[in-house]
Amino acid sequence: MLLGVFAGCGPKPYGAVPTPAQLEWQQMEYNMFVHFGPNTFSGLEWGHGTEAEDLFAPTELDCRQWAATAKAAGMKGIIITAKHHDGFCLWPNPESTHTVAQSSWRDGKGDVLAELSAACKEYGLKFGVYISPWDRNDPAYGTPEYNGKFARTLADVHGGRYGEIFEQWFDGACGEGPDGKKQEYDWPLFHSVVRQYSPDAIMFSDVGPGCRWVGNERGIACETNWSTLDTDGFTPGAGAPPRDTLQQGNVYGAHWIPAETDVSIRPGWFWRESENDRVKSVEDLMNIWISSVGRNSLLLLNVPPDTRGRIHEIDSLRLMEFRAAREAAFGTDLAEDAKIRKRNGGRVWEIELPEYRTFSMIQLQEDISLGQRVSSFEVQIQNFDVALATGGWWTIAEGTTIGYKRIIPIEHRKARKLRVVVTGSHARPVLSGISLF
Ligand code: FUL
């Protein structure tokens, strides 16, 4: 159940706290990633940038089908690869000669971003973009001139014609351009352009500033996951903090940069016929959910459209099965009608259920608008076996951080009285939810 929020006279914020946009972003929990472009047709993961524009030729492009699928799956937004490393732009980018405008698809008049942003609006979803700084096609890549072109590319997408953009995904990859050169990215310039046009957009990279990469592409956040990060001296890509830091954050980190978990429903990021029988199972997806959303992270699940330009039947069916499985698992909070009392100076929450109930998952939430505070906790149940000591408390789960949401799977337990004991906290703990499933 959700616990009461404080009006006015509550605890003071602790440490770095989320902006209103970051708070709203965290509450989205589950978004769709869409990898789509020439690689969909070539079967490559990283296109070379030399592919003919005509390679991009979806036969039945239907962005409304993507949006309808995301909506029905329970997702809140869609982020599309507007430009991947091959440099091909899914919109007519005036800064590039390698775009939909140079292809024969729809006689060069097509614009995937226009169709997807309209579909998102229609279905009440937020719209976001991945725009790769690494560009294997642009002849200017590897020279200072490219930074200006990339900044104007960002301005073109964020300038307003696609409506509000909730997230800008900056891939850290920095490889060679067509001349074999690497680029020195001007991150302050790129950030300032996004800020100027989309002040509330969450900027993703290894080091934020809006949210950070979780450090792997397997869908697994760390059990200890601080939403705070120190970024001094680090850059996205090769200059990023070590993977385990990206996984865990920094316990006393100076900035609020929560983890985003990106993973594909298929082995590859782009669609391939040969992977139609390797779409992740509901069980895989449920494990990913618990180790991402259930570990203080947002899940960005990649569902790549096929060469028709549609989400394949196998993937969409799996998403619906997964939604049904989540509803079965999390649909009824067994603590919804519990009596919850705070004890011990606000470090212990006692939960009394109306009767003995069996559960196998505990969900805890912190009011992160006040910062992330809890560093360790235990969940205990009161012994109900009269043969054992009466009134004793028995620890059934232990953990470190909580953050926005923490789901702890346990063995099936039956209890009527439980308590959540915060054993370590940087400031008075402020839980916003306790649930049993
Ligand atoms: C990586 C890229 O190199 C992959 O192709 C993919 O886009 C993934 C989400 O990010 O850095």
SSE topology:
Blueprint: H1 20-28, E1 30-34, H2 38-42, H3 63-73, E2 77-83, H4 112-122, E3 126-131, H5 144-158, E4 165-169, H6 187-197, E5 202-205, E6 211-213, E7 228-229, H7 243-248, E8 255-256, E9 259-264, H8 282-292, E10 297-302, H9 313-330, E11 339-343, E12 348-366, E13 374-382, E14 393-399, E15 406-425, E16 431-436
Parallel strand pairs: 1-2, 1-10, 2-3, 3-4, 4-5, 5-6, 6-9, 9-10
Antiparallel strand pairs: 7-8, 11-12, 12-15, 12-16, 13-14, 13-15
This protein binds beta-L-fucopyranose (FUL).
Residues 45, 171, 173, 262, 269 line the site of beta-L-fucopyranose.
Features of the shown structure:
Jelly Rolls; 437 residues; 22% helix; single chain; TIM Barrel; binds beta-L-fucopyranose; 16 strands
3D architecture notes:
The chain has 437 residues and is α/β, with parallel strands linked by helices. It has 2 domains: 4-10 and 334-436, Sandwich (Jelly Rolls); 35-330, Alpha-Beta Barrel (TIM Barrel), CATH 3.20.20. 22% of the residues lie in helices and 26% in strands. The protein is built from 9 helices and 16 strands. The strands form 3 sheets. An 8-stranded parallel barrel has the order 1-2-3-4-5-6-9-10, surrounded by 4 helices. It is globular and about 75 Å long. The model has no long low-confidence stretch (mean pLDDT 96). It binds beta-L-fucopyranose. Beta-L-fucopyranose is lined by residues 45, 171, 173, 262, 269. Residues 45, 171, 173, 262, 269 line the site of beta-L-fucopyranose (FUL).
